[in-house]
Amino acid sequence: MNEPSRESAKTIKLAERRVFSQSFKPLYGEGMGLVEQAAEYLDGKGRVEAKTLSRLGATLYAAESMRLTTRLMQIASWLLLQRAANSGEMTRDQVASEKVKVRLDTASAHEDAAGWNELPPDFLDLVQRSLRLQALVRRWLEPGRAPNLCGTSKFQRAPDHAAVAEFAAIPGALLFHGAHNKHELMFLRLDPA
Predict the structure, then answer these.
(1) What percent helix, strand, coil does the chain show, rounded to 5?
(2) pLDDT, tens digit, 9 for 90 and up, residues 92-106
(3) Tens of pLDDT along 144-157?
(4) Is residue 157 located within the same domain as residue 118?
(5) Three-state secondary structure call for residue 111
(6) Residues 121 and 157 in one domain
(7) Is residue 2 in some structural domain?
(8) Has residue 2 got a pLDDT over 70?
């Protein structure tokens, strides 16, 4: 009777690979930059603009400000956890145990809410950008979102045989060396549909 080995039964988490990759840096920069921009706006220009709103507009502004800051703090927490894992400050297990505390589902009022059209354009821009960023982070974490994958691993020193084995274990995966660089391993998986 053929039993699969423990190694071949190991599942690779593509979302985890993505957040521990170089492609994470732009997301981190965008997220932390948005946190800074929002703090600057809310402490400065936003405070002044909020005073000009009607009672209804001011109430909606206050509620949306709380949602905005909550959303951005949750995103920043997630980004900082990923950065800590990337830099070796925390293990992946430590990150996983902390990640359960992060909620990436902070909603916003709808554009047809009473008083929405009164809200300052710069504030609405921050709200929309934070919602897009939250959605992007959530998409990064969803399994099965990428039916077709292609990537390259560069081995400048010793190859990471465990990582190669994990990629090879993905159903439909092809691993091969590029024609011009023996230090690169190409990974390809195409959706059979």
Answers:
(1) 55, 10, 35
(2) 778 778 887 888 888
(3) 555 566 666 666 55
(4) no
(5) coil
(6) no
(7) no
(8) no
Which amino acid, residue 145? Answer: R
Strand residue runs (E) in the chain: 149-154, 173-177, 184-189
Give the CA-trace dihedral at 78, 82, 134, 140, to 10 degrees.
-140
pLDDT for position 151: 66
**What residue type is 121 in one-letter code?**
P
Examine the domain organization and report whether 58 and 130 are in the same domain: yes
Higher pLDDT pick, 174 / 52: 52
Q: How would DSSP label each residue in 138-178?
A: HHHH-TT--SSEEEEEE-SSS--HHHHHHHHTSTTEEEEE-
Helices 55-86 and 121-141 pack at an angle, to 10 degrees, of 40
Section 38-67 average pLDDT:
96
Q: Are residues 129 and 173 in the same domain?
A: no
CB 122 within 8 A of CB 46: yes
- Residue 96 φ then ψ, to 5°: -60, -40
Q: In what order do the strands lie in the sheet with 173-177?
A: 149-154, 184-189, 173-177
Do 87 and 54 have their domain in common? yes
Q: Decide if pLDDT at 126 tops 90.
A: yes
